[in-house]
Amino acid sequence: MGFLLGALAVPLVAGCGLWGADRLFPPDMQRARQQALLLQDRRGEIIDGRVSIDGAWRFATERANTDPRYLALLLRIEDRRFWQHPGIDAPALARAFFQLVTRGHVVSGGSTLAMQTARLLEPHRHSVRGKMQDMARALQLEWRYGRKGVLDLYLTLAPESRNIEGIRAASLLWFGHEPLHLSEEESALLIAMARHPHALRPDRHPEAARAAVSRLLDAVSDTGWSRRGAMPYALHVERIVHEAPGALTWQWREGQRGVYRSSLDRRLQTGLAEILRETPPPAGGTWAALVVRRDGSIAAWQGHAGNGCAGCAGDMITSWRSPGSALKPAIYGMAFQLGLLAPDTLIQDRATRFGFYAPRNYDRIFHGTTTVRTALQRSYNLPAVRALDMIGAGYFAGTLDAAGIVLKLPANTSPSLALALGGVGIRPLDLARLYTAFANGGVSRPLTLDWPVEPRPGIPLIGARANRQILSILSGTPLPRGRADTGGLRVAFKTGTSYGQRDAWAAGLRGDWVAVVWGGRPDGTAVPGITGLTTSAPVLMRVFDILPEEGETAVDSAFVPARLSPALQKLEGRMGPQIVQPANGGIVESFADDGSATPLGLVATGGVEPYRWLINGVPLDTPVGITPSWKPDGPGFVHIALVDATGAGSAVDIRVR
């Protein structure tokens, strides 16, 4: 009996000892947990990325998402008895030792995938001590995570040249696709590179890599693996382009790692960047712009124009700025909702003191009795402050906060009437959410970069009727100078200029799209002369020019450069010349208060060039190679005709004022 108890105690004590050793000396999993972030657009195109904190392109990889043919070849080459041994392959080690003794040099190493994984987790020099450590760790890893877990760890950590680690990172960056489908040559190259990552780097040593793949496939030709033509690895070596640094940083700070499919659209992202680069920014400043779909998914994010100004490298989309008058639509919307005002309610624009607060209009002119509609379209300040006084500044700020639209008040202050004129901080991200609520019938939904977008419950901001009234008013906002009225394609928008001319805003919506544009200096220095209407609104209109029309998607419609409008997309392919700009029946705001006129650009498509333009029957003199434009000589109605080289033509009638 005592002998039996002793025999049972030995494995029990040994098991307890191993358990204690495992707890006292756990494997260091830090490298496996440190992942990079690869940002894709909604089509899966890579648009940005950031290496892990230890400088590697590494993504968690599972065998379920890896080509079974690669796995079969890997085990055939590296560890044939992987599914049988406990982490150490005793026969393989014995064979390796015998070959070393009889031949005087290493013929095979005898390392299992578990032992290789242990060394990848804790890199060290080749030595007897290191080999013993790898063996102990291999047993521990298989005990802890099982064979499937060990295989996943190897797939995550395998060195694949450069600073690329793991099968998923290698497949994406070398081949341009996920590792779920790998060719025979691609599989062989990944296995060969893991053995000699520097010597077989395919972009620097293509012949060596090609020879290694050939040798490896020859060695397993009996299994049915065979070479099929040239290897494809040289066809795609992905260089990470940094087209969406703001969105990437936001996701990184949110803890996102791995390969992230975002809602961004690379075509729109590129088009938006082109617009901001081509448009001269406010003096010493930069631009920022955000494009959002009606469902709250972010389609394009440009935190700065990349114009190299001092301090302009930061991302302004998440920066706190004064919104100027951009919050006025929400103030009036809540007043409509509460039944305090209506679009045609008469309201006074006269000098008024609210306690110690005495606001005034931007132009320092008071306009007397006016309607709410006109007051909002012309952005009069006193009526907006009166409306906010009616609903209460606390109620207004609390309603926005409850709807997920965050405002930042000055330290140790409570909401005041100054909110109506920009006396608060807001991020372009939150302003975009506000205008997205207008696009959704007054219901606020979170903005997201996730794709596909998961349906989320909305938070009511204002009622549907009040929302329709606000949109009707914003659709009549005076257009920037030189911009033609596009009728059904009209953008409902609002501008804002912060106190001291530090920020110029334009936010608007049309169909399924919302866009916000900010211009100014990141350091908050004033830029004399900037206003929302004259500075940012023209950029906003150009942004809407590249957005698909309602009912279309960026996938269905070809990308159109920033200089073209949606009308040009519709007209492409029609027979005969067509006038794209100005639009028929449009109203062109050309004359300034001082009587100066802005030239009107003339754009056409179709037909056979060269074109001939006629203004009220008089031919327009346009030098060859110069974009045609016409400077009005006075307000009124104008007939514009176009004739192409074949004699075909078209015409539009506009009103200039």
Walk me through this protein's architecture.
The protein has 657 residues and is an alpha+beta fold. The chain folds into 3 domains: 25-235, Penicillin binding protein transpeptidase fold (Orthogonal Bundle); 271-545, DD-peptidase/beta-lactamase superfamily (Beta-lactamase); 573-656, Immunoglobulin-like (Sandwich), CATH 2.60.40. The protein has 19 helices and 23 strands. A 5-stranded antiparallel beta sheet has the order 7-6-14-13-12, sandwiched between helices. The protein has a 5-stranded mixed beta sheet with strand order 16-23-22-19-20, with no helix packed on it. The protein has a 3-stranded mixed beta sheet with strand order 2-1-5, with helices on one face. α5 crosses α6 (128-157) and α12 packs across α14 (381-391). It is elongated. The chain starts with a helix and ends with a strand. Mean pLDDT is 84; it is low at 551-574.
In short:
The protein is α+β, with helices and mostly antiparallel strands.
Total discrete domains: 3
Secondary-structure-derived class: alpha+beta
End-to-end separation in angstroms reads 111 Å
Number of helices: 19
- Rounded to the nearest angstrom, the radius of gyration is 33 Å
CATH architecture of the largest domain: 3-Layer(aba) Sandwich
Poorly predicted regions are: 551-574
Indicate the mean pLDDT: 84
Helix content: 25-40%
The CATH homologous superfamily of the largest domain: DD-peptidase/beta-lactamase superfamily
Work out the number of β strands. Answer: 23
Tell me the name of the CATH class of the largest domain.
Answer: Alpha Beta
**Lateral arrangement of strands in the main beta sheet:** 7-6-14-13-12
Biggest beta sheet attributes: 5 strands, antiparallel
| CATH-defined topology of the largest domain | Beta-lactamase
Coarse morphology: elongated
The proportion of strand residues reads 15-25%
